[in-house]
Amino acid sequence: MQTLTHASTAAAGARPAQAGPWRRAWRKLARNRIAMLGLAVVLFFISLAVFAPWIAPHDPLAAGWSTIRKAPSATHWFGTDDLGRDVLSRVVWGTRASLMAGVVSVAISLLLGVVIGMVAGFFGGLVDALISRITDAFLACPFLILAIALAAFLGPSLTNAMIAIGISAAPIFVRLTRAQVINVKVEDYIEAARAVGCSPLRIAVSHILPNITAPVIVQSTLAIAAAVIAEASLSFLGLGQQPPAPSWGSMLNTAKNFMDSAPWMAIWPGLAIFLLVLSFNLLGDGLRDALDPRHR
Amino acid sequence: MKPRSLALVGAALLTVVPMFAQAQVLRVGLAEDPDILDPTLARTFVGRIVFSALCDKLLDVDEKMAIIPQLATSYQWSADSKSLTLKLRTGVTFHDGEKFDAEAVKFNIERHKTMAGSNRSGELRPVTTVDVIDPSTVRLNLSAPFAPLLAALADRAGMMVSPKAAKAGGANFGTAPVCSGAFKFVERVAQDKIVFEKYANYWNKDAIHFNRIVYTPIPDATVRLANLRSGQLDFIERAASSDIVKIAADPKLKVSKITEIGYQGITINTGKSDKAQANPLGRDAKVREAFELSLDRQGIVQVVMDGEAVAGNQWVAPSSSFYAKNAPMPKRDVARAKALLKEAGVTNPSFTLMTATTSDAQKIAQVVQAMAKEAGFDVKIQSTEFASSLKLADQGDFEAYVLAWSGRADPDGNVYSFLACKQPLNYSGYCKPEIDSLLNEARTKLTTADRIKAYEQVAAQMQKDRPIVYLYHRNWLWAYNSKLTGVREVPDGLLRVEGLKLN
Amino acid sequence: MFVYFVRRLASLVPTLVFVSILIFGLQQLLPGDPAQMLAGEDQRPEVIEHYRQKLHLDKPIVVQYGYWMGGVLQGDLGESTRTQLPVLDLILQKLPVTVELALLSMFIALLIGIPTGVISAVKRGSAWDHGATVFALSGLSMPNFWLGIMMILLFSVELGWLPASGYVSPFENLGANIAAMIMPAIVLGTAISAVLMRHTRSSMLQVLAADYVRTARAKGLNERVVVLKHALRNALTPVITLGALELGALLSGAVLTEQVFTIPGFGKLIIDAVFNRDYAVVQGVVLVTATAYILLNLMADMAYFLFNPRLRH
């Protein structure tokens, strides 16, 4: 959660790039081996999610009354859980829920945050003041509490958890977008566009939006990482993906009761969360380096 | 050099002194933080654990759930069963030094009945007036005979607080309660600890071997157990069933398994709202019978509770003297279930099973879903946060609901509120006048034999109607330091401090 | 500039009002009836009605808000409906605990974050840099409740070195206090150390390229002296201001960690209150936390401006 608030100030440091240096940025990123490793792991997880039906050795929902909490073995590489289901298959299928939770939440945040932030930055004045105060209010409330309250309001489910996280994280993007818009607004080419008679919408979409993409991309990648953890946290409290559908967070929620007797139930989903989140963080970090002209 | 070595010695002494004091402190780990420490307003099970050391009651129950004396030394029903005369123990004082006598009993009963927000008024409804015969004799007058009264007086409705302190504390008495139990209240830090100190003038002080008790609420069972194993706690309640094997194998720890007086079951909406008629499970008793037959109770017990429960099909456990022997537990019969569904004309009935987000409830739902599937049921699980589920149940906005009941000493407490017309816990919406009259009969007859007759008829009807499918009765799982002796295994799941000793 | 800060302080009031409306509104949205929750197991209708009236639940929302806000302005944050204890007392009891946890976590974060950031900057691009990045980001990538439970299993159950949970006041027993707080502080601290590390790194990189550093090097000073004496001091100022910001987030972000370690701080208080629909507690705690967060933000911004005149617009 700290990353979300914090990274926005850092991401804001990446100044708008002109058309063309995407190539340069990509090459820079490619040279960063750790970031590339992160990217590779992310792609690996994405393929796990897409090809889950073919990769998972067992049915993730198939309960087995005789194989309850069995330690890892040849048939069950990661062991079985408290209802006798194969942990490996559940981890593989759970990739879908966790990735979706990360991506969809951030998509919602982006949609809300960028639009509202653009409005605030572009129009300024009272509109800006009102939006800024409300955004500050959201940011002052503990992120997890907001998410919990929203998830409880909507009802425990993965979809609602995504919406809750998305709404709770939107203020960061509002702030980020608004700051970028304010910086860019005073540039000559914007003045020129206005002088030529472009409509505000046109200016916003064709001129401002492309120039704020860099920090938004960086922030989004880092936000996906934080959102995956937020989903795990909500599921840990019983508010995310509901049984019997697998998600790493809800698997950890069940596993916490068996840490002593069946640690494998917690180790593998925990490890999966860790690897996925770490990869997104490394990737986002690398993107920040690549897109920030200050770090030559 | 000198001051430093002095400081070292001082520090060493400081670590040693608590070690000696330690043996006289009992450290208990609770599964939740209790609510208000006022017996009239209190409403949680975990609060009763704390009360058993703080507040004495008129009566108590023993390991066989028989009524035994505590503050009242004997009781006598009148000939028409409409009044109960209690002889009180003499020489008892409250923690503030005030005398316990018949006037105090009268004050307390009236407080339980009339205080705003009192949770006890329902339990004492039939009590109309209280007469003080003499300082150690009191008589409760009833509007009608009421068998569950004794059990009520053995619980919070029988707890006696100091009238002086209650008048002074008013509505906030619970923040500094003054009772007459073995221990008196010292301090409470919400969600952190509740500290009691030995009451020097307790009437049974020879049975008390601790100077202090510290209750610590630790909601996570793993952490609670970790505290016990690392020696920071002496006793924990509600150990996780999956940890029992490990605890039993540890020579430093002991386990107590006590079958509860409550139950775990599935409540079906048969008449609370329109949803009942809209769903085959709610409107057709045959479908409900098929549902029950598709379940393997022992299997559920094994998977959900690791065997630490007793399968049951009534509101009291099979071992209870009030278990109706004419309504035995059916064995799983998937074939018969399928046949019944065919007769009813629905081969693949679908319904939504609402459960709280606790892991036990969710596990039950998943196991039930898998088992019922074999008979053709399509069970959808709807996990709901507890607060919401309570509201939905009250509105009848559900089809089936996994719900447990913590249990009351008297069987009436396990059945009346659930099956009698329009009672607060009757989420099923079940309402049959003949059942109401049977339940009332069971309340107003005082002999066990008569009451059992009435309950047997109720149980027989339940086998036809099935508004609630009872599943099992959990075992209270206590884990404690093996040096702790005198642990009394009473089925109400409350730790009693008399006779408890840490060697 | 003075005017700027006065304006910022003035904007505190509307923000806080919005916070109060936001959290009040959110609670109203929560399904479930607090009166029912308070009535406990027996659900007696007369008890439910009693609480409904006591909490003004039968009145329109605006009126309820008015009752609450009126109390707040007089210093009365209401009482916890679950335990009858005054909310203000609960907050005052638990604030020092969470503050101590936040400070300890910050200390650990600084302890890990700054050195790794310096190493990363000085040995930029090398294996040290990558290693430090991975190490710092690892702390951020682990779900803190998972890390917490694993630590309890290892250090409390297996090794018996540290207590599994609970809290002892430092005034009562400093040793026991540290023993109880060290694991949760590590769990929280490692997460924030990543953020601090990245900042130290970028700040150091900027400073190391600056003219005065080149001068110091030209003077022939030992590289280590250059780094530690000249660069670090200047690089640290933005990091410290950031630290203040993170402290604000920590104050409210320890929710799950406190749950796992049973530390009786704000986080645990508020989670339980949300699930028990203990409105007064949630509102009171969020209001206090939000105020603290906003004030810390303001202080951090002020410090940032003071140290970086280039940013004044």
Cα distance, first to last residue of chain B? Answer: 41 Å
Oligomer description: heterotrimer
- Please report the total strand number of chain B as a whole number: 20
The amount of helix of chain B comes to 25-40%
Q: What Rg of chain B do the Cα atoms give?
A: 25 Å
The greatest interface here is: A-C, 53 and 58 residues
Low-confidence stretches of chain B: 16-22
Describe the protein's architecture and organization:
The complex is a heterotrimer of chains A (296), B (503) and C (313). Helices cover 74% and strands 0% of the residues of chain A. Chain A is an all-alpha fold and 296 residues long. In chain A, α6 (125-140) packs across α8 and α10 packs antiparallel against α12. Residues 1-8 of chain A have low confidence and may be disordered. With 503 residues, chain B is α+β, with helices and mostly antiparallel strands. Chain B has 2 domains: 25-252 and 482-502, D-Maltodextrin-Binding Protein, domain 2; 263-473, Dipeptide-binding Protein, domain 3 (Roll), CATH 3.10.105.10. In chain B, 34% of the residues lie in helices and 22% in strands. In chain B, strands 1, 8, 9, 10, 11, 12, 13, 14, 15, 16, 17 and 18 form a 12-stranded mixed sheet that branches. Chain B has a 4-stranded antiparallel sheet with strand order 4-5-7-6, covered by helices on one side. The radius of gyration of chain B is 25 Å and the shape is globular. Chain C has 313 residues and is an all-alpha fold. Chain C has a domain at 101-274: Orthogonal Bundle (MetI-like fold), CATH 1.10.3720. Chain C is built from 14 helices and no strands. In chain C, α6 (87-122) crosses α9. Chain C is globular and about 85 Å long. Chains A and C meet through α1, α6, α7, α10 and α12 of A and α2, α7, α8, α9 and α11 of C.
What's the gist of this structure?
The complex is a heterotrimer of chains A (296), B (503) and C (313). Chain B is α+β, with helices and mostly antiparallel strands.
Give me the secondary-structure topology.
The complex is a heterotrimer of chains A (296), B (503) and C (313).
Chain A: H1 2-11, H2 21-31, H3 33-50, H4 52-55, H5 87-123, H6 125-140, H7 143-154, H8 158-185, H9 188-196, H10 200-236, H11 248-255, H12 264-291
Helix pairs in contact in A: 1-8, 1-10, 2-12, 3-5, 3-12, 5-6, 5-8, 5-10, 5-12, 6-8, 7-8, 8-10, 9-10, 10-11, 10-12, 11-12
Chain B: H1 2-22, E1 25-30, H2 45-54, E2 59-61, E3 67-69, E4 72-77, E5 83-88, H3 102-114, E6 127-134, E7 137-142, H4 149-153, H5 163-169, E8 183-189, E9 193-198, E10 212-217, H6 221-229, E11 235-236, H7 244-249, E12 253-259, E13 263-268, H8 274-278, H9 280-283, H10 285-293, H11 297-305, E14 309-311, H12 334-344, E15 350-355, H13 359-373, E16 378-383, H14 386-395, E17 400-405, H15 412-419, H16 433-444, H17 448-465, E18 468-481, E19 484-485, E20 501-502
Parallel strand pairs in B: 1-10, 1-11, 15-16, 15-17
Antiparallel strand pairs in B: 2-3, 4-5, 5-7, 6-7, 8-9, 9-10, 11-18, 12-18, 13-17, 13-18, 14-18, 19-20
Helix pairs in contact in B: 10-12, 11-13, 15-16, 16-17
Chain C: H1 2-10, H2 12-29, H3 34-38, H4 45-54, H5 61-73, H6 87-122, H7 127-141, H8 144-158, H9 174-208, H10 211-218, H11 223-253, H12 255-261, H13 266-275, H14 279-307
Helix pairs in contact in C: 2-14, 6-7, 6-9, 6-11, 6-14, 7-9, 8-9, 8-12, 9-11, 10-11, 11-14, 12-13, 13-14
